[in-house]
Amino acid sequence: MQLYAGSTTEFISDAVQHRVAEKLGDAYYEYFRFRASISEFNSWQNSLTALTAQLQYSSLLDHGIILEMQLPLSSARLDALITGHDEEENAHAVIVELKQWTHADALDIDECVLTHLGGRLREVPHPSAQAAHYRQYLEDTNSAFATESAGAVALGACAWLHNLDDQSRESLHDGRYNTSLGEAPLFTGHDAMQFREFLRARLAAGNGMPVLDRVRGGRYAPSRKLMDHASAVIAGERRYTLLDEQIVAYNLILSMARKALRSKAQHAIVAVKGGPGTGKSVLAINVVGQLLKEGRLVHHVTGSKAFTENLRRVLGPRMKPLLQYSNSYVSIDPGTLDVLVMDEAHRIRDRSHSRFTPKAQRSERAQVDELVAAASVSVFFIDDHQVVRPGETGSSAMLREAAIRNDAMYLETDLRTQFRCAGCEDFIDWLDQLLEIRKTGVTRLGKLDGFDFRIFDDPNALDGAIAKVASEGASARLVAGYCWPWSDPHPDGSLVEDVQIGSFRRPWNAKPDAARLQRGIPKSNFWATDPNGIAQVGCVYTAQGFEFDYVGVIFGGDLRYNPMTNAWIGEPSASFDSIVRGRSGARFTDNVKNAYRVLMTRGMRGCFVYFVDDATREYVESHL
């Protein structure tokens, strides 16, 4: 998708007559079904006027230009792409990242700067880093730029900040940004001549419209180099080691995938079922790595932003095209992928769109059908008892129905070996029986070999115990049911201590969009993996999919045991999770039970719990 494409001569004419922003605005509305904001409209007007002057100054009058081009399987849009030929008649395209910033400051955060956006200061990518990542992403995913192909369009990138003041120019050229600046130079209003030289070195011979057509006709096709890179990265991660049933499931999945890809007769669905701590994520990564090594086009998919963003951080930003979200497959051509591997498949949603989804990207198809159609083989790692939100529909029964609906072969396998909770399957079975999630027959929790389970009468004592094991070198986190408000940070960047029980005071992890946090406070997506996350309390949405040596759980008032009725009771009035409280209906209690099951199974070596409700604590203690 792009909002504007044509020749640079047409673009200059439209810009001079103030038609470009209007055309972009109309195309934006046609695609997204709502109007662009005034700030975005003004940004187009100002930045594109400056770009027009630069194109005229550089004599780039026989070229192609694309504005607001969406990257494949991504919501990101690059600002401008100019096409043409160099003096040796080689096809070129140049990404130009446009900013109308007047001021920006350097930050100690890698590849990031601080500037004023949307009415407040924000931490954002350095423009050169942003442009460089766009270039790498297109080279890795668009067939027109596949560097291993003969005649590929060569791709360059730069940033053009025409309003930037001199002090900020110096800040953004600080030595800490040398790598990004080397990959995508940054030019300001005082660098018009250097910007001109950069563009003409790649585009001087013009004839840009045939190149523009090649770019627009490029298909989604992750490059061989990206797949080799991904395979090598995953193979080098020694933490991804398989044991027991994981090995059986691993070979079963690969065998099924190879057979289906050979026959190409019909889709195949593989469901890998496993409870908390059975190594589903480790297995999923190993499957992806091996299939990439065999030259298969494969994606790793989740519905969890925190999990996917951490995986991208561990494996590197270049892996982004292969690490996707479950709502990314609305418009992809059927059978584009060889294999789709979805971890945390219980988080599959009924539909992929939300109220913010552009009309062109909306679909009434079930999300699971989109995932199945995208690949010849779809592999789903699933726990039927980890659905914690309304709208999440993932289950093995749903996958079986999808197989029938899509005329797909179906195979199911189970993981049982426990890698969490010190390998104590009894703890998981006891917890499921206790919460009445599934019948296991384990009604009493006996002595656990190597796993430390404790109940505390005071949240401060619980907090102290978690701090102690962390001080001894263990990974540890404090988590809680969503029973307290979640506030924006204070003006000084510190977090509000929302979680309050008597004298106990702790903040939740930071909100996803929180900016200018005090040094040492991690963003919410990285709360589980940043050592400083121990200073905040996490919830199920930041903890699900992760594990720690020790987890401390504050069991809130949204779920309590009633000794008079001998039943678990969900208390929506005690919940601050507006979506679960407002949309779960009769499933509120089940969703909250599943949430506490997730929280209490994050620990590898220990789980410490404090119960807000005394009757609930007494009931749990009676089953020890």
Overview of this protein structure:
It is a single chain. The chain has 624 residues and is α/β, with parallel strands linked by helices. It folds into 3 domains: 2-216, Restriction Endonuclease (3-Layer(aba) Sandwich); 224-415, Rossmann fold (3-Layer(aba) Sandwich), CATH 3.40.50; 421-621, Rossmann fold. The chain is 35% helix and 22% strand. The chain has 20 helices and 24 strands. It has a 6-stranded mixed beta sheet with strand order 1-2-3-4-8-9, sandwiched between helices. Strands 12-11-13-14-10-15 form a 6-stranded parallel beta sheet, sandwiched between helices. Strands 16-24-21-17-20 form a 5-stranded parallel beta sheet, sandwiched between helices. Helix 12 (305-315) links the parallel strand 11 and strand 12 (323-325). Helix 1 crosses helix 3, helix 2 packs across helix 3 (38-57) and helix 9 crosses helix 11 (280-293). The protein is globular, with a radius of gyration of 27 Å.
